[in-house]
Amino acid sequence: MLKRFLSERPLRLPHIKPYVPRPGDPSFCWFNSERDDIVSEVVNRVCMAHESDRGRLEIALNDAAFHEIRRLEKQHDEEAHDRLGYWRSMIRRIGKMDDTEQRRVLHTIVTNMTRDVAGNFDPRVYRFARRAVPRMIGGIMEPRHLMAPAPDAVGRVLKVQGDVEHLRKLQSEGSLVFVPTHSSNLDSIVLSQALEVSGLPPTIYGAGKNLFTNPIISFFMHNLGAYRVDRRIRVNLYKEILKLYSQVMIERGYHSLFFPGGTRSRSGMIERRLKLGLLGSAVEAFSMNRVRRVDRPVWFVPTTINYALVLEAETLIKDWLMDEGEARYIIEDDEFSRIDRWFSFFRKVVGMRGACIIRFGDPIDPFGNNVGSRGESLTPNGREIDSGGYIERRGKPVTDPARDGAYTRELGEVLAKRYEQDTVLMSTQVVAHVLFRHLVQSTPGMDLFARQRLRGEIGLDCETLGRELGEARDRLQELERQGRVRTSEVVKGDTPQELLERAPSIWNGYHSSTAARLEGDRVVIGDPSLLLYYQNRLVPFAEAIASPDQRQAACEIENLGVHR
């Protein structure tokens, strides 16, 4: 009922005075005055790349028409009714068009796509959101305080870690590009709140167009810088537009955010294989500025988003196990789409200490070097270097897509290592790993899918489980001392028995299935798939925290991450 009410009544902001940007405001407050010029620049640069070669131009037009016809024929909706005839007509005429008409059609297609992508930023909404969003979330978490939520409600749930002071110093000297891990559609919301409480600037970010169907999220995304990404569109021109839009924004000094993993991690594992397109746009933005003699550095901020409870865990792991990650690239029917699940989720996390931890890692330059306090690039031994030298040829900066592509691949490898080092392991994940390892030990010869059918059949007495949990925690803390991973304060501070009691109460109070439950002096595994999702965060560390008799099971668990 609430969802229908909101969808029928678009959100409005009454009584908010027009906002005039002032010196010192975040760079995004000036975006709307540049929006048309940014769209024009993206359109012109995409079109220029194709117009000089008739063969390339015809290929681009045919590719656009073919993929759009294929997409629209599957949709059977209003968009298909309006646009399918245009594309079918166009694909028949492309070969008959002269150069002038082909260029005109290209310009029209690129302009329409770019306008659909381009974001919007309303400083009035930004000002409103800074006050309202924490109160709204706090009210959902504590309904008895809905009219006046406790001011620390969000703070109890969301914790920020990392050298935030360093990032605050850099924000006025160049473009910050936050590159976080991706577990939930809530990520952009909690990350925006983390930036706000840390005194860091708002960012542009790409959001799947399917998220704009949620009236609440759509309102804020539309007005707070999100540019729309329609993942149903397979047109190569569209992919070029997305990348170039990101590049132009970074070139102009707008701080940015994108998820190198692409979509949410279906398995719950730490991302290893990253999508390099948008990373490349930031590297190329740095190169282009240097060629234009614009001294505006670009710094990447590896960021991990860590949850003790994940809103969409059940749907995501089911999708992964069914190997439908590609087929269901866009999931429109998960827990995020249901407002009642939001209420259940936030009410559950209100009693949890540090339910979400955002960790901002140390910034790096486009070539994987550490960044010093003044923004200077540093070699591993601490020597200062000029990052501009990476793009020079015979002493002059030049653009070179092949070279920038190589740098981007190296940057992706650095980020994957940083994600592993800066991941904060939560209590539910550690408990899930110890339980799942026992499941593997108890079922030699079974494959992953056969184990998913063992609901309520495998258990372990609390004393043994507590001992194994304590040993795993000790080994994780040793890895943390080596700088290989991090653990939450709850994992560090609670006793194994407290951790053992806490995790089932967290899962069972929210998820519809039971990951594990206490039965007398035993813990019984209820839903192995949900257990798998939470334990997957520890896949890279399974062997390092296993005892000799657990090594074989740990090796099998670690192999889950191979080629993923």
Q: Provide the helix percentage.
A: 40-55%
* Beta-strand residue percentage: 5-15%
Number of strands: 17
Largest sheet: 7 strands, mixed
Distance between the termini: 40 Å
- Rg, Å, rounded: 25 Å
pLDDT < 50 runs, ≥5 residues? 1-16, 143-149
User: Quick one: overall form?
Assistant: globular
Q: Provide the residue-averaged pLDDT.
A: 86
Put simply, the count of helices is: 22
Strand order of the largest sheet: 1-7-6-2-5-3-4
Structure description:
- There is one protein chain.
- The protein has 564 residues and is of the alpha/beta class.
- The chain folds into three domains: 27-117, no CATH class; 158-203 and 255-422, no CATH class; 424-561, no CATH class.
- 50% of the residues lie in helices and 11% in strands.
- The chain has helices at residues 2-8, 31-51, 54-75, 78-93, 99-117, 123-141, 153-157, 164-170, 187-197, 215-223, 236-251, 277-291, 313-321, 339-349, 401-422, 427-442, 448-451, 462-481, 489-493, 496-508, 528-535, 551-558, and strands spanning 158-162, 175-180, 204-208, 226-229, 256-257, 298-307, 356-360, 370-371, 377-378, 384-385, 392-393, 396-397, 424-425, 459-461, 486-487, 516-519, 522-525.
- The strands form five sheets. The chain has a seven-stranded mixed β-sheet with strand order 1-7-6-2-5-3-4, with helices on both faces. Strands 8-9-10 form a three-stranded antiparallel β-sheet, with no helix packed on it.
- A hairpin with a 2-residue loop joins strand 11 and strand 12 (396-397).
- Helix 3 (54-75) packs across helix 5 (99-117).
- The radius of gyration is 25 Å and the shape is globular.
- Residues 1-16 and 143-149 have low confidence and may be disordered.
